[in-house]
Amino acid sequence: GQGDLPTEIWEKVKNHPCYSEEAHHHYARMHVAVAPACNIQCNYCNRKYDCANESRPGVVSEKLSPEQAAKKVLAVASTIPQMTVLGIAGPGDPLANPAKTFKTFELISKTAPDIKLCLSTNGLTLPDHVDTIAAYNVDHVTITINMVDPEIGAQIYPWVFYNHKRYTGIEGARLLTERQLLGLEMLTARGILTKINSVMIPGVNDKHLVEVNKAVKSRGAFLHNIMPLISAPEHGTVFGLTGQRGPSAQELKALQDSCEGEMNMMRHCRQCRADAVGLLGEDRSAEFTTDKIMAME
Ligand code: CLF
Ligand code: SF4
Question: Where is the Radical SAM core domain (predicted)?
Answer without folding.
Answer: 24-273
